[in-house]
Please model this.
Amino acid sequence: TKARGRPPVTRFDAVYRPARKETTITGGLANGDMILNEALGMAGVIGDFRFDLDADDMRAEASLDRLRLSQHLGAGQTLAMIAPVLASGEVVLEENEAAFSYVLTTPEGYRLGRGTGVHHMKDASGETLLTLEKLTFSPGGLQPNKISPALKGIVTDADGAMDGTVRFAWGGTELQSGADLAFNEISFAGPTQAVTRTNGVSGSVQLT
Model:
């Protein structure tokens, strides 16, 4: 696992119990701006953590009130497929494996859904599954391009609903993704100048 950038400000208290060979560290995290494995941007964290170490085992857990996540664009990339989101949740690290759960919202405050995942520290691989709760689009409210900037100028002034699941898997510097999406009575402007509006679209889409 590789990270670069400005780490969050960390405050902590530590207690060492020599008779039992135990160490406990508790503290908090604030701000920061880092890139993880050249794929994921992480900034503006607010949260608390606890770290326990004894002669046989190590365990760490953290509770995040806020973390801004964004797709890091590499060389030659100009358009993010996923818009920045805000995350809150929990993570537990045991035996070089971090299990996490989270809730995602847009920076404007629209709730997107919740997910779970795992990250393997030794080989920097992992995966997560995000379940999109029933997202309701409305002009002036949540819009598809707030989820994926790639849809800007293609799907606008949308109304209707969408739900589904989104999967991400990573290893090294590679990020793979897929999605199963279901649309219910989606209407939107376009998608071309020749078609001023498309109305009442329902169905499913699988992205790989």
Remarks:
- The radius of gyration is 20 Å.
- DSSP finds no helices and twelve strands in the chain.
- The chain has a mean pLDDT of 88.
- The CA atoms of residues 81 and 144 lie 11 Å apart.
